[in-house]
Amino acid sequence: MSLQELSLYAGVPPSRLATLLATLSAVTGMRAVPVLQHHLVFSPTPAPAPGALHPAIGPAATQLEASRIDVHCDLAPAKGAENADVKSSWTLTIPTIPESGKRNVQVQYINRTTFRPDEQCVTDNTGILFRFLRALDYVYAYDYLERGHLFVYSGMVIIKVTQLSPQSPPKLHEIPVGDEDEHVADTVAQHRDPETAKFLGVWVVHAYVDILTGSESVGDDLEKVRIATERLEALKAEIAGVVELGIPDRGILDPRVQIRK
Amino acid sequence: MSASSLSGDDIFVSLEPPPLEEDPSHAIRSFRNLSQIIPQIALERGTILNVTEDSLRKEIAARTSPHDKDTPDETATKSKNSATNLAQFEDDFNNVRADLNRLICAAQNEAAISLDFVSLLISSVRPAAGTTSMSPHLKSHVPVGSLGADRIKSSPYVEDMSVCLGWKTQAVTAASERLARAAERLAEEAVLEKNYWEQVEKIAVSGEVLSKMRMPDYRGMGVRYGFADAGSTYKEKGIATLRRNAEGKLVVKAEGEKRTKVLSVAIMRPLHGEYVRTGQFASKINYETRDVKNEIKQARDLLFEDELFFEIARETRILGSQGITLDFGNKVMVPLPALQIVIETIDLEDQDSSMELDSGPDRVIAEAINVALHLLLSKLHRKNLKARRSIPLPLGTRTNTTDTGKSEILEPLVSTLAVPPIKDSLMTLIMDLTSALKEK
After folding, report:
1. Cβ contacts of A28 on chain B, cutoff 8 Å
2. In angstroms, how far is CA B267 from the centroid of its own chain?
3. What is the pLDDT of residue A125?
4. Residue A31: which of B380, B228, B211, B386 has the closest Cα?
5. CB contact under 8 A, A155 and B396
6. How far is A150 from A83, CA to CA, in rounded Å?
7. How far, in Å, CA of B61 to CA of B55, rounded?
């Protein structure tokens, strides 16, 4: 589905995390929901892949640049959490560069789809997902773990307070040709243990509202944007002093990769 | 006036030139005022009372022809006297005139000296202006600009210290009295505030949710005794202000009108064609309201009762097809096989009188239904809270299910109570049919 994501960001040092979590609990009226996700990032490649479809249908065939693809799954949450019985599912996200211009909130268009939980992707290490994306001229670039907490404000705004743990990508030159996808999938699967991962110190606060766009959407788009902006600004005002939500530089979130020069 | 009337002691000099007349004896015109004329008349004639009009006319007539009356000797004497007087007058006049001239000259001299003095002073600042008005004599003897002038500061004003000290003492005394009174007032206020905050602390320690209130007529502490944090979507949020009265006592003032009604469930069974109440139960809420904590608890319980009846009344519209009605806005009638449930609100004061039917199996049923209704509302709160905390769908997502038309409280109750009799009657019918078929 096509989404328009309105968001605000902030960075918090570890020393202020406890205060932030207590404030968000009070503001949202809920306990933090634990978050643990494994993100796999795929980049478009200019070279035609051995398994690519002919004629090529990926962006490498026709475009100068294309966005990276982020595929993430929700790993099993910590023991004792309320949603411990939720099955993990894979979600594929293709973001675009955030909109430019002077705005109160950041606006970014995203395409997102969720695989059914019973579909076998990387969980059984067959590398289906990798082969599927390679057919679209996308190859594995890197992966990282994301862990943290999630709140819901005013029934609309999702607040994620997370840490990232970048993982070392497997050395491709040591992988036999033809077995890249399976080998990479096996290696990546070993990165899912949060106990052994090394997380960065800073915590990223991401408050966002997703607005459905396109033919599936109901209601006035401008009205939805106005409501979402109001809620985000209300949240910003409510937690001002504890954390200052703002708009980062759009270049940081630029997912585009130049394919051809 | 005739010259013979002048006495030797009266000498009058006039600066006016003498009139040019033939008889010099009449050249004398003394300028005398009335205060001088009247004594002279009194001296001449003795008294003014003796002066009559006839006598004056005779005098005037005699004056006009004096040679007819005067004798030659008298005429010579008169002439000699008038010449002597004239000479005296001239001497006196000349003396006076000389004095006058002298005085005028002196004044003129003084004025010239003053002019020279001022000119010499001015010449020290503006030589050109001063020199033009200086006399030649002064210019020749005194250098220009040799005399200066300056302002001399006056001697410092010596204050009368006693007056200052008096004013200071009075002001300091007044200020100290005011401060003392203010300190007393503040001390009393501090005691009252201490009592107030001790009571607030007791409420906070007991687990109540305190928050800062900003209302048009009140800014201070308040307590949230409602169920909004528990998932309630009721219009009344259950907010009360914690005010301090003049005695420092904490007063809980709930917003909106005070609630006094509790939910009552009554069971009615048909008897001789009419429904008779056979059992009733209502929650007993009658705390000792002297304690603030009990007051808040009572307000919370009554709010729950109010919300419960509101939800039940709302759901009667949804379940109207099942025969559930709302009578007079405050009584819900739930018809069931063999009995009727009446759900209504009664006043706290009427609790004891309505609890006469305090025994019997229907009273137990009524109590169970009452408790079930309360539990179902709590379950509804929990469901709302869970929905509020779940990750929301993107804005604009079409939702196929609408929860607004769903009955969460009455329908489970009605279905639980209505199904068994219907199932029993259905089972009976089926058993009869099967037995009839078996016989055949």
Report:
1. 389
2. 63
3. 46
4. B386
5. no
6. 13
7. 10
